[in-house]
Write a structure and sequence with these properties.
The complex is a heterodimer of chains A (about 525) and B (about 180).
Chain A (H helix, E strand, L loop, with lengths): L3 E5 L4 E8 L2 E4 L8 E3 L2 E2 L7 E2 L6 H4 L4 E2 L13 H7 L5 E4 L5 E5 L2 E4 H20 L5 E6 L5 H13 L3 E7 H10 L5 E9 L4 E9 L2 E10 L4 H20 L7 H20 L2 E10 L5 E9 H25 L9 E5 L6 H11 L12 H14 L19 H9 L9 E3 L6 E5 L3 E6 L7 E9 L7 E7 L9 E8 L11 E8 L5 E7 L11 E2 L8
Parallel strand pairs in A: 1-11, 11-12, 13-18, 15-19
Antiparallel strand pairs in A: 1-2, 2-3, 2-4, 5-6, 5-7, 8-9, 9-10, 13-14, 14-15, 16-17, 20-21, 20-23, 22-25, 23-24, 24-27, 25-26
Helix pairs in contact in A: 3-4, 5-10, 6-7, 6-8, 8-9
Chain B lengths: L3 H12 L6 H5 L7 H15 L9 H36 L24 E4 L2 H16 L2 H14 L4 H16 L2
Classes of the chains: A alpha+beta (about 525), B mainly alpha (about 180).
């Protein structure tokens, strides 16, 4: 029997689970932890170390420790935000073929999907050990606003880990599924997902077993990492002042300050002030110094205010895009570790005029949703080992799936996820305009085709440039790739009819086809995606 | 719950309705609101979402997916239409002033001066009006061109290209003789 694992592949942490009759069972690491750092270390002593055990190499060999790979997966390395993110990491990233980022560790060159596949493989092995069964399939979650290339690269990571990726689902949608499956209610909810590296907000209508995303938006370069970094910069400035030297030149020291910043951030979520010292700072004169710090919650909130404002602005926009008022939302789910910050919850309460729902575990709820979808798609709910069965959000989610299998006379209730296309997809037309084919927030899977024509007489070759983004100018959008139709019949301009079809599948991946309508011979071409790993044959 | 045969029959019927209007695909009245469309969409999703039919032969899965993708497109077009119309009165209500004119994109001179790549995106019906507009322009009949372009936009309201062309001709008219 095929067992399908639900995996939340996060920027800083990952989590995996399987659906069992009594609830989802979380996959545990060697120290019985449910949440696994998305860190892959290639220590000098050889081998590959993943998860909690990889953490300790951060201070000894920062160059050999790959973290936050999700920030670079499926990205064009030349994009400005990617370049900015590269300044915050200590391992070596260079430009590879097709403008994709390549990691070099100890003379090994690896693509980002290869790095992520180590995390997935680790989770797969932990699950196999725990369940005593081979794992073949997986549902992997991605940020709702992930692009085509990022999704394709994530699927590729799954394939490299030996997993058949049954489906990519969006993280906020997975959280909504964990929350709402089996409740049998009709309600509008908002999922506010502020994780380690990405931010998403989705508005959903839950109508029985149907989960319809009405609108979704976000920023895949906004997360807890950025807050840590802002604080680490402050600590670095303090360090220059107190100890009279600039730590920014030292990768080990900056890593230490980042870790210190993260600890201070977490402390301030529970307490009003943080005071202490960061020890073990190696000074240039060979001595070891320590950096005292003292920070109030209010000071920290001022420091990160800009980031929080951005999340709140996006949230307000999404409510508007859904055509709703904040008051019609009946529950607000806080997902992702960064929602533990009190000022985030307070700002959300101000927008919605009600307290956000904090009864769910923000680190585990996404994996729970993925596990439910994995169980539903594969049609297999396994008995489990009984080791770590505890839902991140209490539901009766699993009984409908179970009864479907055990009692054939009972109707099988499966969740139906109606997700959306995260941004407008268009092609370039004469004059440099972006002609829209598929709207942002259109339900997926979806297909739309439109007929275009040639601009010049006797034009026999047509280039169709595809882009994503909201601008009407092609050049202001993000290019996705190009499709070329050749050897078209020579005709006066406007006489040749070219049908361009955009289909976005249920994984959110775009497939473009173009064909010459009248000649009957449907010449078709496939999209060449920028930034993604080379196409698999 | 419908049997798989019912779903396949439904999918075959939908994929045969390539030219049908959105409301016909969703099987709702032409003047139905967004909420009616949403209920119809959920009903179809419960029956025909491709995730519910993964075990079928590849050919049948493709048929169901194609039909479902057409439904999704129909639902989206009704939803955006209804949302646009429900927003309109709000703009007019703002102290009675007319809404500010949209930004006029800068293009190479002349509405008919299309340059590279694929030309204006438009339906074939719109293309006929566009051709007439071009003829008017050649005669120097700007107002005639404007009328034809408006007709073209009427048949293909989504075309950015046509709107831009109209903006340019309007700008020419404003400059005047």
């Amino acid at each position: 029997m095929a067992i399908a694992l639900g995996i939340d592949l996060g920027t800083t942490n990952s989590c995996a689970a399987v659906a069992t009759p009594t609830g989802v069972e979380f996959i545990l690491g060697s120290r019985a932890e449910r949440v696994h750092p998305s860190i892959v270390a290639f220590p000098g002593s050889g081998g590959v170390v993943v998860g909690a055990d990889a953490k300790r190499y951060r201070l000894t060999e920062p160059m050999n420790v790959i973290h936050s790979a999700k920030r670079f997966i499926g990205q064009n390395i030349r994009a400005p935000l990617v370049q900015l993110a590269l300044t915050g990491i200590r391992y070596k990233v260079t430009e590879g073929p097709n403008q994709q980022p390549i990691v070099t560790v100890r003379d090994r060159r690896m693509t980002m999907p290869e790095i992520s596949s180590h995390v997935l493989l680790y989770l797969k092995r932990c699950a196999e050990r725990q369940l005593g069964n081979a794992i073949s399939d997986a549902v992997i979650t991605v940020p709702a606003n992930f692009t085509d290339a990022q999704r394709t690269a994530t699927k590729e990571a799954g394939r490299l880990a030996g997993l058949n990726v049954a489906r990519l689902i969006n993280e906020p949608t997975a959280a909504a599924l964990a929350y709402g499956f089996g409740r049998n209610q009709d309600q509008l909810i908002c999922v506010f997902d502020f994780g380690g590296g990405t931010f998403d907000v989705s508005i959903l209508r839950i109508n029985g077993e149907v989960f319809e995303v009405l609108a979704s938006d976000g920023d895949f370069f906004l997360g807890g990492d950025d807050l840590d970094r802002a604080l680490a910069e402050v600590l670095a400035a303090e360090c220059s002042r107190h100890l009279n030297f600039d730590p920014r030149q030292s990768p080990v020291l900056m890593m230490k300050l980042m870790m210190g910043a993260e600890a201070i951030k977490c402390h301030l979520s529970e307490n009003d002030a943080a005071e202490g010292e960061i020890d073990g700072i190696d000074l240039p004169n060979g001595q070891v110094g320590s950096l005292p710090f003292s920070l109030t919650r209010q000071q920290f909130e001022e420091l990160i205010g800009g980031y929080i404002n951005r999340t709140i602005e996006v949230t307000k926009q999404v409510i508007q895009q859904a055509g709703l008022q904040a008051s019609s939302i009946s529950d607000i789910l806080c997902v992702g570790g960064s929602t533990r910050i009190p000022s985030v919850r307070q700002r959300l309460a101000e927008v919605f005029r009600r307290e956000p729902n904090i009864s769910i575990n923000p680190d585990e709820v996404v994996a729970q949703g993925a596990a439910i979808q994995a169980g539903s798609l594969s049609g297999s709910i396994i008995a489990g080992s009984g080791m770590a069965t505890r839902d991140a959000v209490v539901t009766q989610a699993h009984s409908p799936l179970l009864y479907g299998g055990a009692k054939p006379q009972t109707a099988l209730v499966r969740p139906v996820l109606l997700d959306v296309n995260p941004s407008t997809l268009a092609i370039q037309t004469a004059g440099g305009y972006a002609e829209r084919l598929l709207d942002k927030n259109a339900p997926i899977p979806i297909e739309r085709s439109r007929v275009f024509t040639t601009a010049r007489d006797n034009q026999t070759r047509v280039e169709i440039d595809c882009c994503r983004g909201e601008s009407r100018r092609y050049s202001e959008n993000e290019p996705l790739g190009k499709l070329i139709l050749e050897e078209l019949p020579a005709k006066p301009r406007g006489d040749l009819k070219i049908e361009v079809s955009f289909r976005v599948d249920a994984d959110g991946i775009l497939h473009v086809r173009a064909a010459d309508v009248e000649s009957g011979q449907r010449q078709e071409a496939a999209l060449h995606v920028i930034g993604a790993p080379a196409e698999q044959a | 719950m419908s049997s798989r045969t019912d779903v396949l029959l439904w999918a075959r019927r939908i994929t045969g309705m390539k030219k049908a209007a959105a409301h016909q695909l969703l099987e709702i009245p032409a003047d139905a609101g967004a909420d009616v469309a949403q209920e119809a969409f959920h009903k179809i999703a419960r029956m025909a979402h491709p995730d519910l039919h993964r075990g079928l032969e590849a050919e049948d899965v493709e048929l169901i997916t194609t039909a479902y993708a057409m439904i999704a497109n129909a639902y989206q077009s009704i939803r955006t239409q209804r949302m646009a119309t429900s927003r309109m009165p709000k703009i007019e209500a703002s102290d009675g002033a007319s809404p500010p004119p949209g930004p006029v994109p800068v293009t190479p001179s002349g509405a008919s001066g299309v340059a590279t790549g694929v030309a204006g995106a438009m339906s074939s019906k719109a293309l006929i009006y566009y051709r007439k507009a071009e003829l008017c322009l050649k005669r120097g009949d700007l107002r005639g061109a404007m009328l034809q372009l408006k007709m073209a936009i009427g048949t293909d309201p989504g075309s950015t290209f046509l709107r831009t062309a109209l903006h340019e001709v309007e700008a020419e008219v404003r400059k005047g003789p």
